[in-house]
Write the structure tokens for this entry.
Amino acid sequence: MSAVTPSETLAAPPAIRIHPADDVVVARRQLLGGTVLAGEGEGGADVVVSGLVPPGHKVATRAIAAGAPVRRYDQVIGRARRAIAPGQHVHVHNLDFGHVDLDYQVGQGARPTDFVAEPATFEGIVRADGRVATRNYVGVLTSVNCSATVARAIADHFRRDIHPEALAPYPHVDGVVALTHSAGCAMAAEGEPMEVLRRTLGGYARHANFAGLLVVGLGCETNQIDGLLRHGGLQEGPLLHAFSIQDTGGTARTVAHGIEQVHRMLAAANRVHRQPVPARHLTVGLQCGGSDGYSGLSANPALGAAVDRLVRHGGTAILSETSEIYGAEHLLTRRAASPEVAEKLLARIRWWEAYCARHGGEMDNNPSAGNKAGGLTTILEKSLGAIAKSGTTALTAVYEYAEPVTARGLVFMDTPGYDPVSATGQVAGGANLICFTTGRGSAYGCAPAPSLKFSTNTALWRRQAEDIDLNCGEIIDGTAGIDEVGERIFRAMLATASGRKTKSELHGYGQNEFVPWQLGAVM
């Protein structure tokens, strides 16, 4: 994608208006006091900027009374702490989160999907049971934190950057990865926390991107391996081995045993080839992290345009991060395919409200410090921008964390907003690709699913191009449209699913980012 010169950026209007009814516009670049925003005021009057406004931040275009609602996206994003004059910077100093009565209008915006006559294809790996993979790994999972060091030692034996000869005979194997976690013991043997952990581990164990798998435990943990396998409907065989450190005879012997088992799997894992498969076999997890004031204007709506294409081609997209759709969930219930889908989504919102209350927190603890530095002020504003990733098609299903995703089209999975935990749930549910937008910067990866990252602004692209796969900042610069960039993203999805490496894969990200959602008391 071509770079944008400073002169091209300066040629664009200094601010972006999203909707005629909005009380604010967004600074396209840093605005100095005295900058004129032509025609942005009441009745088409000019607005003169008062003071310095950073890029991505909001400028009032009309007088707003103290306590009055402030609108962006033609939706309320908060209430004025004090009177705000036209031209003033609108941010945390004069805008507060406030309760908003939402009109859910269940299903009124849902419409049938207009499927394409000839769906796109990608070069996928078809497993013997018909599942389609985008990558071809051997995995090492742990039942408990106590076996993490052993699992990592097994995987490290096959690292191409340390032992290039280990996988040299197996060019069709993407690698051997250890996915470890901090749970598995000091928790109740029954109940929601164990259910969620086992559902997550079972989802990874069944993931199409794993050609073979080891499960390594200590031996005395609460999350016993036999219970984990039974819960996930898993059986040991040539490509699934499970063992514990205590039974195998200690650390060194267990590492040696694991290396031997991986060697036995590699020949079978290498006997794959890619072949054209329809795009309906693509399941994409949608993420945004390090969001800024541009997220809802560039990368997120462009990803939404790509999601609309994916759905029309028969594929599936998983929207998540429940705590970051809060206050904007009515935009999803309007697109719900049925009242049952809408009610399930609202039930998860109510669960989160109760969850936060139990722990002395509130849903408006967002945005983060980085989000605020990038121009986001309230959780309402952040959520309205985040939902843009979902595009415009009907919401067909709602899932709990790490549940297997079986519906097609746009679905929702209940997860925290913390990206590693959220994406871990999506991959456990079957996502074989992650698309991740960022405005502040990200260096995230997600083995065994490749992760594409998209910048919301060109300044980030220039600063962190080694970690970002595609620049959506051209939308802000005025040199590309949302639909045009959405098409680029859709083509990047297909190319990545066909085997093209992402930036995070080239850097070796993905193992440390496996973070199952840990619920309940640690005992």
Q: What stands out?
A: The first helix runs from residue 6 to 11. The first strand starts at residue 15 and ends at 16. Residues 1-8 have pLDDT under 50 and may be disordered.
